[in-house]
Amino acid sequence: ISLQEKIQFTPRRNKFWRWAWLLGALWAVDLLAIPDRIVKVVEDPYRNAEVKQSAEKARQVMGNGRMVSLRDADQYYSGDVTGLEGSLRETARDLLPNTNVIWSLRSARGYLTIFTDGFQNINRYIQKGTYEGRVLDAAGASLFIFPKPLPFFKYQSYDRLGPNYFIKNAGAMGNAWEASLVKNFNNRRDVFGALLNPKAFLEDEVYTENNGTIGAVTLPPVKRPLSGYAGSSFLDRFTVFARELFQDETKIQPSRPSPCEAGFEIASTHRGFLVFNESFSPGWHAWVDGQPKPIFRADGLFMAVPLPETGAHQVHFRYEPVSFRLGLFVTLLALAVLGSAVGLKRRQIWKEIKAKDF
After folding, report:
1. pLDDT tens-place string over residues 7-31
2. What is each CA distance from 55 to 61, 94, 126, 175, in whole angstroms?
3. What residues contact 43, with CB distance under 8 A and at least 6 apart?
4. pTM for this one?
């Protein structure tokens, strides 16, 4: 490079760096100013002692049940809540839907709100505020969190934290029970109408509905028996015989290996239905003593399988939608094709190596 070219290049380079430093300084000032203008650092509400206390109280009341957290209409926060930090803390403390997932607390909204047929949504019932009926009892809603006591005998105020009452539902059903009587209704609306009656005897009744043509609304049984079924033991059969002899009540022992599988060992003293209060949804299948059974839509929202005779039974529910099985089949097929291709390629390479050696 000539001296004249260096003289012409140097001023341009200096000018470039001067502007670069200026723009960099402006960018740094703007970056440092962002937290004061946009980002508001607040305390993690789930580390707050009051929130932890709320979750622990809820767990003590709920047991294996579900909870419903509510607020008055058009009331988003308490009157004394101001600012983002206060609103986050109250939302977490009240264990509103989605916030209770942090603490592994089951919500009636979170676990029973699905849209498989455009209507099967317990949230609609909750929003109506008709809590004296038995829909939420069947859903196992053992705890209500509400800013005021509920005016019904079965709802007992257990404790209070902040602006809300912890209300225990004495009428909550378990996750599964046996019902010996069946009441069939013309449609689903009539089923819910019957469930609004606070005197509905769900402890020994199951409500089914017609499917519009012939028979009740059901999920058809699969074509295969349950693999790995060992059958009832002698001790199970003897226990059931003793219960029948002394007219003892039915006993149910649940197990829940995963959200997509549930099992029940039942010592039944009479024929009827085992009602399981998970959402009735295509993809669920049921087996009784290893044999596939249809699943009836029970009480408008849940699942029930028939127990044709008394005695010891093992009932299994599995959620295996067609899409899952199809995806599993395609995956296995793809792995088989890939494995075959790799094997053929290695065989071809091995043949070429042996040919070169000779």
Report:
1. 455 555 566 677 778 888 888 877 7
2. 10, 9, 21, 21
3. 85, 89
4. 0.73
